[in-house]
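Lecture 7 notes: from sequence to structure.

We start with a single chain of 395 residues. Read the sequence below before looking at the structure.
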Amino acid sequence: MTEKSRKQGKGIAKKPKAAKKAAAKPDAAAKAAKSTARPDLAELRVRIDSIDHTIQALIAERAQFAGQVGQAKGKLAAAVDYYRPEREAQVLRRVVDRNAGPLNDDVLVRVFREIMSACLAQQEPLKIGFLGPEGTHSQQAVYKHFGHSIHGLPLGTIEEVFQEVDSGAADFGVVPVENSTQGTIQSTLDMFLTSNVKICGEVELRVHQHLLSRGGRIEDIERVYSHPQSFAQCKAWLRQHLPHAEKIPVSSNAEAARRARNADDAAAIAGISAGTVYGLKNVAGPIEDRADNTTRFLVLGRELFPPSGNDRTSLLVFIKDQPGALYNILAPFARHGLSMNRIESRPGNIGLWQYAFFIDVAGHVEDEGIRSSLEEMTDFVEEVKVLGSYPVAIA
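Now the structure, written as C-alpha cells:
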C-alpha cells in the first residue's frame, strides 16, 4: 500500500468517530435544555396536595394509636398520668437522628412536639403553670416543651408556680433557673429548699429582648419597665441609647409590657410576643448585649420518671461541717467518671451558716454510677435530696 493510500485509509477510519460526536451533540443539548427548564407549577401543586393528604392521614392514624395507648394503660386519674417525658425525649431524638434536611432540627422537633401535644390532649389537656402574665418568656418555654395543645395557667410569682404544682392544681410548671449571661435566678433555687416538687424536664430558650412602647418613638421614652434580669441583659444598650430614662423593675417582662401600654412616655423591655399581646410597637431590637443570650427553664412535676437514655440529675446536698467536706462529696463523682455540669451553694435551712449545694450531674439516678456515688458520700452529708432526673434539653 502506498503512503498516499495509507493516509487516505486513516482519514476514512476517523470519519465514524466524528460522526458519532456530531450525533451526540443533539442529545447533550436536549439534556441541558431539560435540566434548565422550569418545573411545571401545576404538577408540583398536585404532588404537594397528594403529600399533604398522606401526611394528614398518617397524623390521624398516629392519633388513633395514641388513643389506644391510653386504653392500654387503663383508666388513669388525669391527663398528667398519661404524660411520659422520657418517651417524648426518645421520640424527638430519633427525629433529629433521622433528619437529612432541608429543614433544620429545630423546625422538625417543633412539628413533632405539636403532633404529640395534640395526640395527648385527646385524653385531656395538661394544665401547665408558668410565670405570667400572658406573653412572658416562660410562656414561650411552655409552648416549646409541651406544644400548644395545653391549658396554660399564668401565675404571679415563681413561688406560686411551685405551690400550684405541689398542690395538684397544675399538672406541671415551668420556671426560669439560669441565664447564660446573668447567672442563676436565686428565687427558683431557694424554693427547692422547702418544696417537695421534682424536676422532670428542662428547656433552653434563646431570648431576644426588644424595646416596646405605645407610641413607637424612642425620643418620647422617659421610663422603662422590665424584669431585673432583662435590665442586666441589656445594660450596655440602655447606657448608650437611654442613659437618662428611669429604669423600673417589675415581676416579669409581660407585666412590664402591660404597664407600658398606658402611656406614650413609658416603654418595656420584653419579647415580641408580649408586644403583640399588649398592643405595643417595636421601637428597637433585639437589644440584648449578647446575641447568644439563652435562658434555661426547669419543668416541675410531682414524681421522678424513668431514664430516657440521655439524662441529667439535680441534687440538693446538705454537707456536714468538717474539713474537706466539699471534696468528700464531689470525689465519688470523679471516681465513677461522672461529669458534673453545675454546682452552686445557697444558705440552707438547717442552721446558722449552714449551706446547701445544688449539683447537676450527667446521668440518671437509676444509673449505677450515680447510685454508688450517693452511697459513698453518706458519711459526709446531713441530707441528700434528689430534685429530679430528667431528659437533657432537645433543640
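The longest strand covers residues 381-391. Keep this in mind for problem set 3.
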